[in-house]
Design a protein that fits this description.
Helix content is about 25%, strand content about 20%. The chain contains 14 helices and 18 strands. It is globular, with a radius of gyration of 22 Å.
Length: about 475
């Protein structure tokens, strides 16, 4: 055990993992297999006190920090070389409080933990689409998903956070307590400290209705035109996810030789009215089922499993016409063999109920979130699939439209384009208040505003809360 680990373990309730331990490699692994990092130590925190100790020791010893909640961010920044990794996976508690209708969630909880606790009590928090995503990273980046049109973003249900700052001090933020910080953590990411606990409002949820259609790519222009013609009539209970992809099934790896198709996945928050039939295209290749929400959340887990190599490049669309559809279809036709896809998730609805200035989330006026992505196994395919995704994104997404921060990070984004100048400036002021030394540097890294005329700290990212 190295000197840093010895110093930590003497004060620590949790466990310190170093390169000498048999589980070091698995402890340092992240979701995206493109990244393999070698941290100085991984500290598996068991409590808020452990987090505070880790921050103070790292500060005193001059060791950089990175922070892992679910480890699911695309850039792999939850673990950094030669850093002390604060691992929150031992803090996965979820507890529903019937008296308040709220659920209290630990900083290391995954969406599956949250979904199951809520389902046991007949309620839900709108959160994501893959159950092994971390609650922390999803929430701090905003949180879009199956229920966002009907119930808003994940961060819109947030009522309180507990955070440990750069000095190791515990801060609680809500609308009435440190409101500047509470504004910032709803969309501004893990830039301000280690969020060890979340409290969410919930709302009742019974069964949901899930459907999937499969269309040949040659029919894609007609299908996309139909969706665009009917979109303004969609009730907020209806969420639609369009993918151009090679699809076999959620529990089967896509065949790299399969032709590209267009799929429409839709979810109705409850039992749908017959009007859904008139809003979506007609096809014989459709399945519809009434299901528990937890099963819908988990159905993509296999396809987006840990250890595969992933690349994503996101953007927002504020209109979608024939030219956009043509670019999308051409990008799909040019896709190389492998699990390459372009996905479009509808926004609007309840997302727009919250005024833009109320949170730091920047995409409330967007009509759709688009994500160009690929997943593969062999590093020899890196150049071809990453190159395709970058070219496809450039052809499909207009410049300057911003991007959903939780899908960004494969390439360092333009923060002014992501957040807008006014929001970014405000985030930097909050950063200067709660992390003036720039200790916390996630993939979407926001520098602190200059303090007393001093320049902001070096901007090279070191780690993330994910």
């Amino acid at each position: 055990m190295n000197a840093l680990a010895t110093l930590l373990q003497s004060r620590f309730e949790g466990r310190v993992v170093t390169a000498e331990d048999a589980d070091y490699r698995s402890s340092a692994a992240v979701w995206n297999g493109m990244f393999e990092k070698h941290p100085a130590a991984v500290v598996r925190c068991a409590s808020v006190t452990d987090v505070s100790i880790a921050i103070r020791v790292a500060r005193d010893q001059g060791v950089p920090l990175s922070v892992r909640g679910g480890g699911h961010q695309i850039s792999g920044a939850a673990v950094a070389d030669d850093a002390l990794v604060i691992d929150l996976s031992g803090m996965r508690t979820c507890s529903y409080r019937p008296a308040t209708g709220r659920v209290v969630v630990g900083g290391g909880a995954l969406l599956g933990d949250l979904d199951r606790e809520c389902a046991r009590n007949g309620v839900a928090v709108p959160a994501g689409m893959v159950s092994h995503t971390g609650v922390a990273g999803l929430t701090l980046g905003g949180g879009i998903g199956w229920l966002c049109r009907s119930r808003g973003l994940t961060c819109d249900s947030l009522t309180r956070v507990t955070m440990v700052d750069h000095l190791g001090e515990v801060v609680t933020a809500s609308e009435s307590d440190h409101p500047d910080l509470f504004w910032a953590v709803r969309g501004g990411g893990g830039n301000f400290g280690v969020v060890t606990g979340f409290e969410f409002d919930t709302a009742p949820l019974g069964l949901v209705t899930y459907g999937m259609q499969v269309h040949d790519l040659r029919d894609a222009a007609t299908v996309l035109a139909h969706l665009e013609d009917t979109r303004e009539h969609w009730p907020r209970e209806l969420q639609v996810l369009v993918r151009l992809q090679r699809f076999v099934g959620h529990d089967v790896e896509p065949d790299p030789r399969s032709p590209m198709v267009l799929t429409i996945e839709w979810l109705w928050d409850g039992t749908p009215a017959e009007q859904v039939r008139n809003l979506l295209p007609r096809t014989d290749r459709e399945t519809v089922s009434v299901r528990r929400f937890t099963s819908v959340q988990a159905q993509q887990d296999h396809r987006f499993g840990h250890g595969r190599r992933y690349y994503m490049k996101p953007g927002y669309l504020r209109d979608f016409g024939p030219a956009s559809a043509a670019s999308l279809i051409e990008a799909a036709r040019s896709a190389p063999p492998g699990d390459a896809q372009l996905e479009i998730l509808q926004l609007g609805g309840a997302i727009c109920d919250v005024p833009t200035e109320q949170t730091a989330f920047p995409g409330r006026d967007a009509v759709m979130a688009i994500n160009v992505q690929a997943g593969w196994e062999d590093r020899s395919d890196d150049e071809q699939l990453v190159g395709w995704a970058r070219a496809a994104h450039a052809s499909v997404v207009p410049g300057g439209t911003g991007a959903y921060a939780n899908f960004a990070g494969s390439d360092r984004p333009d923060l002014a384009a992501v957040f807008g100048e006014e929001t970014l400036s405000r985030l930097r002021e909050v950063k200067a208040t709660y992390d003036p030394q720039d200790v916390f540097r996630p993939a979407i890294h926001i520098e602190p505003a200059a303090v007393h005329g001093a320049p902001a700290a070096d901007s090279e990212p070191k780690g993330a809360l994910l």
